[in-house]
Task: structure prediction
Amino acid sequence: MSILPILEVPDARLKTVSVPVKEFDAELKTLIEDMTDTMYDAHGIGLAAIQVGVPKRILVIDLQEAPEGEEAEKNPRVFINPEILDPSEELAGYKEGCLSVPEQYADVERPATIRARWQDIDGKTHEENMDGLMATCLQHEMDHLEGILFIDHLSRLKRQMVLKKLNKMRKERGVAA
Result:
């Protein structure tokens, strides 16, 4: 198991449209383990394969929700070749962040509920109705599969402000932009 480097804006690979997974093999399982370890190491709740430079339709998510004062149990979920079947017309806003746009957050509106279909690590198909943070997180991670970042949902002015704050933070830390 390895911690993989996470691509950050403005890396052009983040704009890549990912391809469907066809082989459900040992290599896929290793990638998913590495993605999960990388997500936990970065203190994230979701990660798309393209964020670690692999343009395949794979996501890992673990909301790690726990009652206050208790430690969350790890419960990673894997979504391979995910699709949204039935997004609600009702929207819900959520302050989103992204491991590829570190330490920057902005309000994004998305369908409040969705019906999703995906395959698991063995290629078995699943469907589930989702709402709340899981619906938001799945939509956010699925955007990565199309080369879309959460900041692409913002107005041009707000997106520029987020990127300016990110560059300022990088300069203060001596990190190249």
